[in-house]
Amino acid sequence: MLTHKHLLGLENYPSKDIQAIIDTAFQFREVLDRPIKKVPSLQGVTIVNLFFENSTRTRISFELAQKRLSADTVNFSASSSSLKKGESFKDTAQNIEAMKIDAVVMRHPAPGAPLHLTQFIDAVVINAGDGTHEHPTQAILDMMSLQEKFGKLAGLKIAIVGDILHSRVALSNIHGLQSMGAEVTLCGPTNLIPSFVEDLGVTVNSNLDEVMEWADALNVLRIQRERMGSALLPSVREYRSLFGITEERLANHKKEIVIMHPGPMNRGVEIDSQVADGGQAIILDQVLNGVASRMAILYLLCGEKPEDGNA
Question: How confident is the model at residue 133 (pLDDT cuts 50, 70, 90)?
């Protein structure tokens, strides 16, 4: 049973709740390995997927999780909605809830939009990514994948490499991993590292080889060109030389380093195909664990009542 009604972010989110989600996710992972990959846990529950940004992996993962739990799923696309006709965000939200839905999974380009939504509706709200703020369900599936690999989270040394400035995945991982007792180092171009991150208790090191020598696992982020101007990354070749996870660079370190990536990957830029498809990568495990962890989140928020009414 979780403490909070919603899942809006992992900042100050209780570690016991994160562990409860992960433990439940491993139970649902067993369901996904069965011939019939479906349970009636959320039968009769209606969930709306409210996506104001394009998404492939997260949206499909949530849809699959909902169907595996036997929930009724409604997909909302902002591009074909009444918002295009001038309807307000508040009216759209309240009209959807008037149809007696139980939960909303929301992705929005504006930071804080899921929190804003909780002011207008009584349904459970799950943040599927809000601007450059947080992406809590991605961080939870990442932590589940790390626990699956190492058997623990406490004491692990995790490096997040790449475009930290524009990454909601990075911020949720920082909050979540530190809450669970892991150490976090950030590595990337100095102009793609936010100035406030050291206040969060992480280490910053722009020397990738030093970071790889220290780390148990690398969570590799893509360069988000759609969120930046060309001046922030003048040369892809230079970026790959300094921060790309290449087969040659990996071979120089005589240790096993687990390689992760939230996707989508820019192969040949932040990660080479040989690395992404190699034995040290758990990228496809992350994808499967994404369905299991989102099943756990939906079940714990919609199938059981929280301990209190906290948001």
Answer: very high
CATH entry, 15-135+290-303, from 3.20.20.60, 3.40.50.1370, 1.20.120.680, 3.30.420.270: 3.40.50.1370
What average pLDDT is seen over the chain? 91
Provide DSSP, 207-253: -HHHHHHH-SEEEE----GGGS-GGG-S-HHHHHHHH-B-HHHHHTS
As annotated, the residues of the chain forming the CATH 3.40.50.1370 domain(s) are: 15-135+290-303, 137-286
Mean pLDDT of 20-41: 96
d(Cα 51, Cα 107) in Å, to the nearest integer?
5
Say whether pLDDT at 227 is over 50: no
| CA 104 – CA 101 distance, rounded (Å) | 8
